[in-house]
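FIELD: query
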Amino acid sequence: MAEEGQVIACHTVESWEQQLASANTSQKLVVVDFTASWCGPCRFIAPVLTDLAKKLPQVLFLKVDVDELKSVAQDWAIECMPTFIFLKEGRIIDKVVGARKDELQCKIENHLAPVQNA
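FIELD: result
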């Protein structure tokens, strides 16, 4: 498991499955960034995601390069980059398509709100 407060890049299917499995048991909110190195909006949003990861260590941020892990992108039906998938206990609970910083921040805050008192 990587350090809290950072975006964890998954470079192999094995590391992706390992991160996903540990996330499913942790009951943490998981935000997966499906990205591509050639994608301008992805490069724009990357520092925003890094900043959010530092501010919100209770959220697990994962990054998957769709060209590097084509099978994972296909399994999750990713059609545009960036796509952010929100997971809780292994289930998809939300999604943001595009480099929409404000929407991304709002959705993270909304999904964290009920568990902050727990």
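FIELD: remark
The mean pLDDT is 90.
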